[in-house]
TrEMBL record:
Subcellular location: Cytoplasm; Nucleus
Name of this protein: protein-histidine N-methyltransferase
Keywords: Cytoplasm, Methyltransferase, Nucleus, S-adenosyl-L-methionine, Transferase
Listed GO CC annotations: cytoplasm; nucleus
Gene3D superfamilies: Vaccinia Virus protein VP39
Similarity comment text for this entry: Belongs to the methyltransferase superfamily. METTL18 family.
Region described as Disordered: 1-23
EC number: 2.1.1.85
Molecular-function GO terms, alphabetical: protein-L-histidine N-tele-methyltransferase activity
Keyword S-adenosyl-L-methionine (UniProt): yes
Broadest EC class assigned to this enzyme: transferase
Length: 311
């Protein structure tokens, strides 16, 4: 699955609306665990950034941070998003895990990260209270907007998605577009984005081979705990990837996913039983009309809940 220098495709068709909601249904498909591999994706120059369709999403304390979000549709849509079994489902376990859609908790998380780390952007510069080069991993990134925000704010950001096509066709183009749109955001030297595709069960082995295991100061995950299985797998992965003692994992999700069984309520119970992490409720987003959404911050139960150290 590993490929060298996969070019991006920016000839996307017209854009259908993203529908950020709970999974409509999850098909029960049993397949082997998808092995993880690093995707060597090229960050193309801004001058080559044509043909993609990007819309604006505004976040930040003053609502002045504009993030670019790509759209993937029509003839250029990835086959896995058009597969027959995908037709009535947001997720097909073991095949497609929902990364082509932008889910609402990703935006909750990006918005809250701005507040938590005092991330601000002007024409001239980005500021953030985190040390430059803080290492961030976004698990189940899809569009990757929370991770992209952290990257623009000066962090070293790595992105993981179950499906390599999501990384190639959405995450990486989003990174290009956002770097293009924010020329004052500079990446730490030799700490550009990296991309990992495959199952959380096999990600730790891959990171270990790269000297990255247990090296992440911050792990981000939005809408990744929708089922009991996904919760268990995500927790095991976080336990191995987070920097011992001082790392923080930010998990944004709905409190309950109807018909699927996951959500923050069940995840908190799992955390209590597991005992590795303490969790803090950092935000509750409740408009009274739709499903309540929450953001949890996990820190090691026996560690110091300090700000992340330079990594
Ligand atoms: C519902 S999507 C959320 C995408 C994005 N975070 C957002 O909020 O817009 C769930 C994501 O979790 C990831 N995922 C789910 N189960 C996984 C597994 N077992 N291994 C690896 N990734 C998984 C997929 O990559 C998918 O993009």
């Amino acid at each position: 699955m590993s490929r060298e220098a996969t070019p991006f495709k920016f000839n996307f068709g017209s854009s259908p609306a993203s529908n950020p909601s709970a999974p409509e249904s999850v098909l029960d498909v049993q397949v082997a665990v998808q092995p993880c591999s690093e995707e060597k994706l090229v960050i193309i120059p801004a001058s080559d950034l044509t043909g993609g369709h990007f819309s604006d999403i505004t976040i930040g304390a003053d609502r002045n941070i504009v993030l670019k979000k790509g759209t993937l549709t029509g003839q250029s849509a990835c086959p896995i998003s058009e597969a027959p079994e995908r037709a009535d489902s947001d997720i097909v376990p073991g095949k497609y895990e929902g990364g082509f859609k932008l889910w609402e908790c990703a935006l909750d998380l990006a918005q809250h990260l701005c507040t938590a780390f005092d991330i601000r952007a002007t024409q001239a510069q980005w500021t953030c209270i985190l040390p430059r080069g803080t290492r961030v991993l976004e698990l189940g990134c899809g569009h990757g907007l929370p991770g992209i925000l952290m990257m623009l704010a000066g962090c070293e950001a790595h992105f993981q998605d179950y499906n390599e096509q999501v990384l190639e066709l959405l995450t990486a183009p989003n990174i290009c577009s956002n770097l293009h749109n924010h020329p004052s955001a500079t990446l730490p030297p030799d700490k550009g984005p990296r991309f990992f595709a495959g199952d959380w069960a096999t990600l730790p082995d891959l990171l270990d081979s790269q000297g990255l295991l247990g090296s992440y100061d911050i792990i981000l995950a939005a809408e990744t705990i929708y089922s009991p299985d996904s919760q268990r797998q995500l927790l095991q992965c976080i336990k191995k990837c987070l920097r011992p003692g001082v790392g923080q994992a930010w998990v944004a999700a709905k409190s309950y996913y109807f018909g699927v069984g996951g959500g923050t309520a069940a995840f908190k119970s799992l955390l209590t039983i597991d005992g590795t992490f303490e969790s803090r409720l950092a935000a509750v987003i409740d408009d009274g009309a739709s499903n309540k959404r929450e953001i949890l911050v996990l820190t090691h139960a026996n560690g110091k809940a300090n700000a992340p150290s330079e990594g």
